[in-house]
Design goal:
The chain is built from 4 helices and 10 strands; from the N terminus they run H-H-H-E-E-E-E-E-E-E-E-E-E-H. It is α+β, with helices and mostly antiparallel strands and 226 residues long.
């Protein structure tokens, strides 16, 4: 039992050591969050220690996957807090900026209308490694009843994070305020949630299957003699 806990703890400390060296400027809370995530992820595999994986019950797999999902979600939240890059710029149509390996170009800003709102919509081209990967459409909306202004961010999702682009107000010089976020590995939060749901379902099915097999064995064994 001690070995099952010791190994994840040592590996979690190794992860923290790497983060401490590579991640200058990370807050203490984010730092600890990454350590807890590493420990939970590695510790979730402890029930499989020295087991025959082919004969491991379904409910054990469910428990492992659910706990793994908890660790993955914690890792996503910690990574979001630790590594998010934010850039606030004022851009003319045709200008572009680079942040966190992304190149964002404001092609134009056009008026659009909905049922109860009007908006200025940005046509924003997003580039990665020299190739355009998408066209985003952030909006600055105005609702008539009641009079309210809101911003509708545009989101580009990739396996390793999400890019947020927000269009703000127009300055007196004609430039548009834009806010750009790159949130690396925030997608782990949703992956972790999916793993928790899958693990819970497997655990439920596994327990039901185990109960059904035990009832079947008792029936086959017949009544116990007094």
């Amino acid at each position: 039992m001690f070995g099952r806990v010791l190994l994840p703890a040592l590996l979690a400390l190794a992860v923290l050591a790497v983060v401490a060296v590579k991640g200058a400027g990370i807050s203490l809370l984010s730092f600890l969050g990454l350590g807890v995530a590493a420990f939970v992820i590695l510790g979730s595999l402890a029930p499989l220690w020295r087991r025959n994986l082919r004969r491991t019950p379904i409910f054990v797999w469910g428990m492992v996957i659910a706990h793994l999902g908890c660790g993955v979600s914690i890792a996503g939240m910690a990574a979001d807090s630790a590594f998010t890059v934010e850039k606030l710029v004022a851009m003319q149509p045709g200008q572009q900026v680079e942040t966190a390996g992304w190149r964002v170009k404001l092609d134009s800003v056009l008026p659009v209308a909905g049922k109860n709102w009007t908006a200025m919509q940005g046509e924003v081209a997003v580039w990665r490694k020299g190739a355009q990967v998408d066209m985003l459409h952030p909006q600055n909306r105005f609702f008539t009843t009641p009079p309210t202004s809101t911003t509708e961010s545009a989101i580009l999702t990739r396996w390793n994070g999400q890019l947020y682009v927000v269009l703000g107000d127009q300055n007196e010089d004609g430039r548009w305020q834009m806010r750009i976020w790159w949130k690396p590995f925030v997608t782990l939060i949703w992956l972790g949630g999916a793993l928790i749901a899958l693990g819970g379902a497997l655990a439920l099915v596994g327990h039901e299957h185990r109960g059904w097999r035990m009832k079947l064995r008792r029936r086959r064994a017949g009544p116990v003699a007094a």
